[in-house]
Amino acid sequence: MSETPILSVRGLTTRFRTDRGTVTAVDDVSFDLAKGETLGIVGESGCGKTVTSKTIMRLLPERTAIIDPSSRIMFEGMNLATADERAMRRVRGDRIAMIFQEPMTSLNPVFTVGWQIDEALKYHKRELDSHQRRARSIEMLRLVEIPEPERRYGEYPHQLSGGMRQRVMIAIALCCEPDILIADEPTTALDVTIQAQILSLMDGLKKKLGTAIVLITHNLGVVAQVCDRVMVMYAGRVIESGTVWDIFHRPQHPYTRALLDSIPKSGRHEQAESGRPSRRLPTIDGIVPSLFDLPPGCRFQDRCKHRQERCVREEPALLDSTAAAGNIVQVRCHFPIAAPTVVAGREGR
Amino acid sequence: MNAVAPNGQPPLLEVSNLVKHFPVRGGVFNRVVGQVKAVSGVSLSVQPGEVVGIVGESGCGKSTLGKCIIRLIEPTAGSVKFEGRELAGLGHAEMMPFRRAMQIIFQDPYSSLNPRLTIRKMLREAISFHHVVAPEAVDGYIDELITKVGLRRDAADKFPHEFSGGQRQRVGIARALAVKPRFLVADEPVSALDVSIQAQVLNLMMQLKEEFGLTLLFISHDLKVIERFCDRVAVMYLGHIVEMLPCADLHRHAQHPYTKALLGANPIDDPSERVAAGAGLGLTVLQGDVPSPFNPPKGCPFVGRCPVVIDRCRSEMPPLEPKASSPADGDRRTACWVVS
Q1: For A246, which residue in chain B has the nearest alpha carbon?
Q2: Options 2.40.110.10, 3.40.50.300, 3.40.220.10, 3.20.20.70; which CATH number does A7-227 get?
Q3: B212 CA to chain A: closest CA distance, Å?
Q4: Cβ–Cβ of A258/B196 closer than 8 Å?
Q5: φ, ψ dihedrals at A297, nearest 5°
Q6: Which chain B residue has its CA at the smallest distance from A345's CA?
Q7: Contact A197 B194 (CB under 8 A)
Q8: Tens digits of per-residue pLDDT, B141-158?
Q9: What is the model's pLDDT at position A284?
Q10: Domain extents in chain B
Q11: Beta-carbon pairs below 8 A across chains A and B
């Protein structure tokens, strides 16, 4: 990553005021995003991946969500963490756009699809007149491969299927040609054949428009398919980050390793040689600790197979470690797994 | 379907030509204006001890099929035989022993447990109703059950809202197993759970399956889970089983274009499986969406999205039958005119 990143996040910390006291949902998260890159943020529910993205977009309610004043979200020389609402409005939708998991609830049911694309253009592309905006909206619908875009332009969200709604969301997000697209679980609510359509579409648009993508997901298969780099989060912390190859082939944090092991792999490689694999999956015992009641040391300690006395006492820092080919992997572990691992199903290849 | 399997055992469950249509009402007089054809003539047999997977996308009728089999929903037509006894047409009282023998685990552990009952009360109701154990032994039996599904003993006296999603699904499993069933329908049992919890619950189910000698119908949209945990898989599309084959050779011998598309649409496991740059993602991308079961196409249900469609597909539904090009061992059936 020699060129300057378009988005640079440093020490991002977001707290929530709740009835039970203040809780730190995102704790000291830092990352860079390069132009045209796809960064995956992976983790289980409650790990802080969605809060991270909403903090960048400043979509959290200001009354309850507190962004720590030391947080820096640098975008084009501006710190989005402290930017005022007027400045954010110019960024949001125009330069950084977002798509959400649930296309049903994120589209407005009482306006047509065309109106909703037009709205974004009306705010951000003042130079266009209404005819040009309409033409642009229809072109966007065509770009996201919606059949009969002229007819769909005048339809309401409920007239579209789930996959089509998510495409409309993508059309709205991309109509101003943003530099960054934040996609929060964009395919989780969709069927697998529709997921394949949406992922292929996003990949094609990324190549065509050069958009950088932050993809938030819990689906490691989707990450393997589309991401360049991966950041793994656990209980509000980044616990490992690196290139997708390093994370999948040489995970150094025990959590990353266990997470990769615990998903069933497709048998497309095993079956040819050696019958069926065991019906047991390796598991991660226990559950994620509550953010209200975090242990003093490493947050993964209760579930970790490699726990030692130091892990209970002292929380590890996120440190650089050199992976193969000189890539830097960052790991938050006192005792990272050193030995290269072989991903199940790829032995002997 | 075969009445007797190759191993000579009679099937535990035999479903033939099961149909479920839901009436759609509308208009001024609220008349029936159409039918949602959720399940259109499904035949399937399950051997004792077998785990059969049903895979398909939302709206394909897989959950309706599962619920019709245990008669949580009354099927429109067709027969369901359990241990040789025909269930269709049985009255409430006659169904009772079968209600105990056939249980279900639901997808959503949040809405399938009564929020006002402690786990102990909920379990006791089922156990006493079916006289599973002697009244004085019920409490001990509940404690044993709770530990079997991996919960702490004090969990029995808690309410459902006090548990996490994974724990609640363990309670759901305990509820299903409390009456000592022989057959279990698991309807998307792990889809609502986090990745690391999914593996825990799946392992638990398989362990209990062996311990209690259960037979399982495992309904899921996730082919990777089905492949790992089932012996055979039935692929459903719009109310029909379009292919049925052993999971062990899913990748080598899947013949139906929809099964192949499902396999090809699954994301890769490992970034090094990516195709060369510039060639897109290498995923199989089908055109269009799943058609509506309110107005299914004539002929083959897959006709609108199929990459290899021929004229005959548009007019006639292909039968689910063994194909000459499949290996002779095992039970493999495909419903496709193009596959010979």
Answers
A1: B271
A2: 3.40.50.300
A3: 16
A4: yes
A5: -90, -135
A6: B269
A7: no
A8: 999 999 999 998 889 999
A9: 87
A10: 255-340
A11: 163
| Residue B194 distance to chain A (closest CA, Å) | 6
Residue in B58, B228, B251 nearest the CB of A268 = B251
Distance CA B57, CA A55 (A): 34
Task: State whether B247 and A276 contact (CB < 8 Å).
Answer: yes
Q: In this structure, what are the phi and psi dihedrals at residue B335, rounded to the nearest 5 degrees?
A: -105, 90
* Nearest CA among B38, B35, B47, B48 for reference residue B18: B38
Contact list, B264 vs chain A (CB under 8 Å): 196
The residue ranges of every structural domain in chain A are 7-227
Give dist(CA A73, CA A193) in Å, integer: 36
The length of chain A is 349
Let me know: does A279 contact B229? Beta carbons within 8 Å: yes
Tell me which chain A residues have a C-beta less than 8 angstroms from the C-beta of B281. 196, 199-200, 203, 225-226
Contact (CB<8Å) B263/A268: yes
3-class DSSP assignment, residue B117: coil
**Mean pLDDT along residues B259-268:** 91
- Read off the pTM: 0.86
Low-confidence ranges of chain A (pLDDT < 70): 1-3, 267-277, 323-325, 339-349
Torsion of CA A93, A96, A99, A100, to 10 degrees: -100
Rounded (5°) CA angle B208-B116-A21: 95
> What's the CA gap between A140 and B219, in Å, rounded?
38
Instruction: Please write the tens of the pLDDT for every residue from B217-254.
Output: 999 999 989 998 999 999 999 999 999 999 988 888 89
The CA distance from B322 to the nearest CA of chain A, in Å, is 22
Q: Do A196 and B248 touch (CB under 8 A)?
A: no
- Look at residue A341 in the predicted model and tell me its pLDDT: 46
Query: What's the average model confidence in pLDDT over B26-40?
Result: 85
CA–CA dist B136, B138 (Å, integer): 6
